[in-house]
Amino acid sequence: RKRGVYWDVPQGSEHCLAHGAREYSAKLQKTPFFTNWKDACQNTQAMIHNTVFESPTRCEKKWPFGAVMGYWVVNVSDPDCLPYWGSFVD
Q1: Global pTM?
Q2: Which domain of life is it from (predicted)?
């Protein structure tokens, strides 16, 4: 962690983006007021499904209170985003 900055636990979006892929988002915590929020966002690691991501796919600053949000497109074969077949009965 740089300067005590860390991500909340990333949460998966409701829908899958692609085969085995889902977007996750989290709020950046402990960001000092005068910190460059883009730099802090891009340089703070997150762990999703036991995989370390060095930086988010994108960062956003939410107004009016300035929360910094990170978004990751995670393609680590999310089991809920993979098709499966049940038993076939003829």
Answers
A1: 0.82
A2: Eukaryota
